[in-house]
Every structure is written in C-alpha cells, then in structure tokens.
Design a protein that fits this description.
alpha+beta, five-stranded mixed β-sheet, 3 helices, about 25% strand
Length: about 100
C-alpha cells in the first residue's frame, strides 16, 4: 500500500481518493503518542491490512524516536503480540492504559 503521512495520521487511499486504511494517534503532553484508532475499508478486511498499517505506524514512531500507548483495542493487541519486535517504541505506561474502540 502507498502510505500517506500527516501529523497524527497514517493512511492509504484508492484511485477514487477513498480511504482504504487509516491509523490515527494523538500526541500526549509527555511527548509520547496514543494510537487511538485503526480502520480498514471493508473490501480489504481479512487480508492483513490492519497489521500492515501497524507496521507502518511502528516504523514511523521508531524513525521519529517516539513511544506509544494504544487505546485502540486492535493496536493494543497488535503491539502486545509484537512487543519483542517493537519494544523500543512501547511506552513504559503501555500496560496501564485503558483500551476501547473509537466509534464513528
């Protein structure tokens, strides 16, 4: 996928400019971020796209020396599952946070 980067957002669109996948994060006062939402267009669900966007956001955080918590339940579970690969981006506060899905 062709990822686009904006402050607090990584996403991909199709040829019609329709969002195909997106992850958003909020910058916290302590200089860390909270990954608060992941979205995959229904036509791509079940194809591993959510994992790919988490890889993209994790690499972005690593490149920018940022650490993360995740209130998005998917992002939280993905980071826990991949903790050994991305331990350098996981906040010390990670395990103490509250997780929930953001509804639109």
């Amino acid at each position: 996928m062709d990822w686009k980067y904006e402050k607090g957002r990584i996403y991909s669109v199709n040829e019609n400019n329709e969002i195909m996948a997106e992850a958003t994060f909020i910058y916290k006062e302590n200089g860390e971020v909270n990954i608060n939402r992941t979205y995959v267009n229904p036509v791509l669900r079940g194809q591993g796209v959510a994992g790919k966007i988490m890889q993209a956001i994790s690499e972005y955080l690593r490149e920018n020396s940022l650490k993360a918590t995740a209130s998005c339940s998917y992002a939280n579970a993905w980071l826990k599952k991949n903790r050994c690969l991305y331990q350098d981006i996981i906040s010390e506060d990670f395990d103490g946070g509250v997780t929930a899905c953001e509804l639109n």
